[in-house]
Amino acid sequence: MAVLHQRRSRAWTAPYLLLAPALVFELLVHVVPMLGGLWMSFRELNQFFLRSWVSAPPAGLGNYRFAVDFDGAVGAELLRSFSVTAAFSLLTVVFSFGLGLGAALLLQRPFRGRFLVRGLFLVPYALPIYTAAMIWKFMLDRSDGVVNAALSGAGLGGGNFWLLGGNAFLSLVVTAVWRLWPFAFLALTAGMQSVPGDLYDAAECDGAGPWQRFRFITLPVLRPVAQVLALVLFLWTFNDFNLPYMLFDQSVPSAANLVSVHVYQSSFLTWNFGLGSAMSTLLLLFLLAVVLLFLAATSWRRRAS
Amino acid sequence: MFPRSRNGGARAREPRPVRAPCLLLVLVVLSAALVGCGGQQRKLVYWASNQGSSTAQDQQVLRAELARFTARTGIPVEIEVISWNDLLNRILGAATSGTGPDVVNVGNTWSASLQATGAFVPFDAAAMDRLGGRGRFLEAAMSSTGVPGRPPAAVPLYGTSYAVFYDKRRFREAGITAPPRDWAEFLAVARKLTDPAHDRFGLTVPGASYTENAHFAFLFGVQHGAHFVDQQGHTRFTSPAAVAAVQRYVELMSCQHVVRPDDAEVSSVPEAAGDFTSGRAAMLIAQNSALPPILDSDMPAEDVGVFPLPLPNPLPPGGNPVRTHVGGSNVAVLRDSPRRAEAMELVRFLTSRRTQVDLNRAYGSLPVVKDAYDDPAFSTGNAAVFGRLLAQESAPVPMIPDESRFETTVGAGVRDLFARAAMGQRVDREQVREALADAEQQMRGAGGS
Amino acid sequence: MRREPRWTTAVRIAGLGALGAFTAVPLYVMVTTAVKPLDDVQDTFTWLPSRVTFRPFITMWSTVDLAEYFANSVVVASSAAVLSVLIAIFAAYAVSRYRFPGRNLFRVAVLSTQMFPGILFLLPLYLMYASIGQATGVLVQGSRTGLVITYLTFSLPFSIWMLVGYFDTVPAELDEAALIDGAGPLGTLLRVVLPAAKPGIAAVTIYAFMTAWGETLFASIMTDSNSRTLAVGLREYSTESSVYWNEVMAASLTVSVPVVIGFLLLQRYLVRGLTAGALR
After folding, report:
1. In the prediction, which pLDDT does B122 show?
2. Which runs of E-coded beta strand occur in B168-232?
3. Which residue did the predictor score with more confidence, C117 or B69?
4. Which residue from B52, B107, C132, C163 has the highest number of Cβ atoms inside 10 Å of its Cβ?
5. Is the C-alpha dihedral spanning A126, A128, A134, A137 positive or negative?
6. Chain B residues lying within 8 Å of C141, measured CB to CB
7. 3-state secondary structure (DSSP) of residue A157
8. Where are the domains of chain C?
């Protein structure tokens, strides 16, 4: 690594000056509003106090107590949406990762037209998210959609509702995976490129089958990439608002009630921003816990090996 | 090497401390250069709702009309037409930040909630007199302007009411000679017109729209004598009358089967209207604001008929013969507006007789002032049906500060009931009661009582 | 390279075929729906259009003010991308080339922004912009400026992370050579590090552009009719008298083409950047 400019008496300001613009914008857009949101979570900020929100009455931990009171409707609903979101994120990450890994492996060996296949695979990720959501919304319509048309054409029924009830969860996962797996593919391809091809040839000459080559060459190299990738995918998916909102408009079925949409509907639609901020803060704390767990697990692993 | 580079670096390092601030300056300038042409300070800013079939069309209609205003008063007006999806959020932002428009359209059901924010100018007796007096407005419309007993935070602007649109040709083909007069007949007619094998149903409803669901729950509730929210603001979602009311609505799909199961996915009135005009459904219960897009479609105008929503006969004990809720939009003035006098002038213009006639004719809605009704556009034909319903057979939704929460909780509950019905699951009294109990808990738990 | 055994080839073809179908069918639906007449889309789905018409591509501009939204999106996304990359370059240079207290903290903090839920800071940010607007007279809320500032910050973390990876691959000797020639740190940046990291810069530019192009939540709250972007504007197709799916798909196709082409052209640099980043 290039460590060139040591701290010298006149140069110590250099890195900070270079960092300054980034810091300014991060503070302005991320940090200060987050603190503002945190402040709001301790206030009774609803439509009565919206106009002079600085003087909204303090609510102590009241909003938080509402949010975690699992016997009450609000708390129960929040807990439910947390579990739905967790399930959704896990499934999406697992499938995206799996498909990405599969594609990366299948495209490892060059062949004619490989770049075309690669390009095709990347298109869903490149599409703006609202485009992807609209296409799938159109496809999942019960009477006019492709999915049911294809299913009935293949004799597999085809009268199902895909955007209602329990199926809504499945539809959400499929759409999310369709959109996300190319990124996993990209990242894993990048990771695999650092393995020199001769290593595989040498292993083959030694009689290693494809599975063994994968297990002993590819996997160890991929591990750091895969870990970070999985974490990032999980965070992105857990926080995603756009996809459920665009897929279901305002009528998000409870089986697909992700946390971010739930919080949005509990605050923006009912003007109860104190409660909404409390719920968002809980969401943030949860994700923080996940990240810390991840760091602990990966560094423990590294130390163990 | 180090001493060398230190010297060399020292010379070149001189300009550097200046560069970073320069960069920031460049950034600020760039940012400022990106400033769109925000509202100039002298113009009146008016946020209008989407009343017609598209925001672009609304813009044209309003611009033409307000040109008259500017010519008469010399006050320029900047109009922005906002779709209903975004309007509440934008109003919320304006009320919170103290910046925003001077005059804004609001959904009349939002009136009490907005009144509670204190961000809008109350129309006291003096203000109402400047508009021609409270008596000039339809009683029904005035009932939907805020909490009773307090000066309204908004005055009515456009009126709508619900009625049943029907396909005259389908009626003729089925040998139905007259519109149904009560609920039992209505169901019989709908069943006659339903033929699932040919994808034709008697009725279409937007089962996934929580606002429409809440309106119907409320309306049927009034017919059953149920008050979802009583005078003191307490919720009574699970009273037997309320349960019966909601059940009657959901039964259209679950038990009577006169509504397409797919309607549980339909989340907007335009979509349901599309099903009506394409022949998939013979009837549609909607507000008169659905009339322009229906007439715009391929369906021949002479095939479109309207009749009032039939009531159950006999009316359930304690029920009121109400066939529609008071629909429409109101207009309000932001308290923080620095141009209050001009804003009130604009409101006066918008509620003047001529403007009311012009705009409501363009949008297919109803005037809110009595003197506009002698115009033939509103005293004859379909408009007259809607007008009479609004004036005489309507009731306002609960004017409570938590009205929007009422709509989201009850509306979502009914939507889930429709989803169950669509998937063939049982929806009888018990399920309806549970759904309403859930909605009530959510309404209470989040701060309402 | 040895020829692979037949069964591996079969697996490869089957796998790629399945993935290809999964990826391609929705795209096919989008393209064919965009050229269908309105009757086709309001009825049961058909795999082929009854007749191919490009009319949706014409009428879509008038149903909704697509041209204005397109222009707004282009302005916002380009500005956000350019500014984000500029700021990221400076920050990445600092992290890559300097050792200073707070260096690791900065890197961790920047990455941790990935877990921030947008809902949490949406309203406070809105209020802040409104206050700035009131205090300084510079219109931030409801204008493209506000969006640009927001979006450039959203893509900063990833851009910085990736550029650090790229910069790290530029050997220190080159820097020292430039120093000997009398260049200061900025000169070194401009003359040595940047040219070597051009692909990385291209990659983060397209990433920042894509982020800004596709963002929906903040766009829906922070724009007015003058500054509305495509993300919000495209939803207006479904509030019209009936949902013109063919126009929706035509519009979707049109607005996706720039980002898709850009991404495909530059994706290999993204790959290289990811490799560089992961190897650290």
Report:
1. 93
2. 201-204
3. B69
4. C163
5. positive
6. 93, 97, 99
7. coil
8. 63-278
Is B67 inside any structural domain? Answer: yes
Q: Of A127, A130, A283, which is closest to C216 when you measure between CB atoms?
A: A130
Question: By residue range, what is the domain housing residue B221?
Answer: 162-325+399-445
A11, closest residue in chain B (CA to CA): B13
Closest residue by Cα to residue B214 from B442, B439, B446: B439
- Residue B94: give its domain's CATH number: 3.40.190.10
Tokens 């129309």 appear where? Answer: B123
Alpha-carbon distances of A274 from A199, B307, C121, C141, C222, rounded to whole Å: 58, 46, 12, 22, 20
**Which residues of chain C from 135 to 154 reach within 8 Å of chain B, CB to CB?**
138-139, 141-145, 148-149
Q: What is the largest CA-CA distance in chain B?
A: 105
Record: contact B86-C142, CB cut-off 8 A: no
CA distance B50 to B56: 9
What three-state secondary structure class fits B299?
Answer: coil
Pairing between β-strand B281-287 and β-strand B201-204 as defined by DSSP bridges: parallel
Asked whether the beta carbons of B344 and B130 are under 8 A apart, the reply is yes
Q: What's the distance, CA A200 to chain centroid?
A: 33
- Burial environment of residue A113 by CB neighbours within 10 A (0 to 12, 13 to 18, 19 or more): exposed
The pTM of the full predicted model, rounded to 2 decimals, is 0.83
The share of chain C scoring above pLDDT 90, in percent, equals 15
Please, which pLDDT band fits residue A68 given cuts at 50, 70 and 90? confident
Confidence at residue B446, expressed as pLDDT on a 0 to 100 scale:
58
Q: Which domains does chain A have, with CATH numbers?
A: 56-304 (1.10.3720.10)
* Pair B79, B39: CB distance under 8 Å: no
Query: Based on the structure, what is the number of domains in chain B?
Result: 2
> What separation in angstroms does the CA of B219 have from each of B215, B225, B228, B396?
6, 10, 10, 9
Exposed/middle/buried for residue B201 (C-beta within 10 Å: 0-12, 13-18, 19+): buried
One domain for residues B365 and B269: no
Q: Which of B117, B204, B266 to mutate to test the interface with A (most CBs of A within 10 A)?
A: B117
3-class DSSP state for residue A219? helix
Tell whether B122 and B225 lie within a shared domain. Answer: no
All residues of chain A having their beta carbon less than 8 Å from the beta carbon of residue B210 are: 250-251
pLDDT digits over C186-216, tens only?
777 777 778 878 878 888 898 899 889 988 8
The CATH classification of domain C63-278, taken from the options 1.10.3720.10, 3.40.50.300, 3.40.50.720, 3.30.450.20: 1.10.3720.10
Hunting for tokens 């409660």 — which residue is that? A275
DSSP code of A217? I
User: Which chains reach chain A with 3 or more Cβ–Cβ distances below 8 angstroms?
Assistant: B, C
Q: Are residues B337 and B320 in the same domain?
A: no
**Residue B15: per-residue pLDDT:** 38
DSSP string over B235-247 = B-TTSHHHHHHHH
Closest CA to B170 of B189, B197, B196, B188: B189
Please check whether residue B366 lies inside any domain of the structure: yes
What's the number of CA atoms in the CB half-sphere (13 Å) around residue C261?
A: 6
Q: In what order do the strands lie in the sheet with B304-307?
A: B201-204, B281-287, B162-167, B304-307
The verdict on whether omega for the bond into residue C157 sits within 30 degrees of 0, i.e. cis, is: no
Nearest-CB residue to B38 (from C139, C221, C241): C139
Residue B86 and residue C138: Cβ atoms within 8 Å?
no
- At A10, list the tokens: 């006149």
Same domain, residue pair B104 and B184: no
Phi, psi of C171, deg, nearest 5: -65, 150
Q: Looking at the complex, does the CB of residue C170 fall below 8 Å from at least one CB of chain A?
A: yes
For residues B234 and B270, membership in a common domain is answered with yes
Q: Which residue, of B395, B411, B427, is where some domain finishes?
A: B395
C83 interaction partners in chain B (CB closer than 8 Å)? 27, 30
Instruction: Provide the CA B86 distance to its chain's centre, in angstroms.
Output: 12
Statement: residue B347 has pLDDT above 90? yes
